């Protein structure tokens, strides 16, 4: 009798420790089709910033810029000129990217490729309407100095002195863009 009591007690103890009944599975058809599965963003983050590019910041002198950049750069000022561009090794200006220095300080960078997105998402190849959709009422249009029908789309940063400028062709397509500080951001001929 004692042995039967132990067997019954053991069975009851095991039953008490088992997991509770599982709730019924929700049929797939009842899940809202409006809910989309999350997709990981695999696009690389842009290095373009309103206050600089990657680890370099506007106002850095050449030595601090070179230390923060940690890559080979080419370019030096011409004799008697305080304004010049540095470019990463393998880049030919004005393609891709170039960094402007004036008075020994980093003051602007220029981009001429669709591979890089500007702060806020604008890119070479977009049209003016797409830029206005991204940047809203901050876009100020100015006529291009040399190309009839083309424009400069100037976007002031809400908090700071930095400015983003997109250049368009006569059809309203973005051909290049730049970020920098005044007055250098408004040099339409670069260091020319």
Distance between the termini: 106 Å
Query: What is the third-level CATH name, the topology?
Result: Pathogenesis-related Protein p14a
Beta-strand residue percentage? 25-35%
Q: Describe the sheet with the most strands.
A: 8 strands, antiparallel
List its traits.
Pathogenesis-related Protein p14a; 192 residues; alpha+beta; 11 strands
Topology:
Elements: H1 2-17, E1 48-49, E2 52-53, E3 56-57, H2 62-69, E4 73-74, E5 83-88, E6 97-102, E7 105-111, H3 128-135, E8 139-143, E9 151-156, E10 163-168, E11 174-180
Antiparallel strand pairs: 1-2, 2-3, 4-5, 5-6, 6-7, 7-11, 8-9, 9-10, 10-11
Describe the structure.
- The protein is of the alpha+beta class and 192 residues long.
- The longest helix has 16 residues, at 2-17.
- The protein has three helices and eleven strands, in the order αβββαββββαββββ.
- It has helices at residues 2-17, 62-69, 128-135; strands at residues 48-49, 52-53, 56-57, 73-74, 83-88, 97-102, 105-111, 139-143, 151-156, 163-168, 174-180.
- The strands form two sheets. An eight-stranded antiparallel β-sheet has the order 4-5-6-7-11-10-9-8.
- The model is unreliable at 1-20 and 25-43 (pLDDT under 50).
- The protein has a single domain (48-183), classed as CAP (Pathogenesis-related Protein p14a).
- The termini are far apart.
- Strand 9 and strand 10 form a beta hairpin.
- Helix content is 17%, strand content 27%.
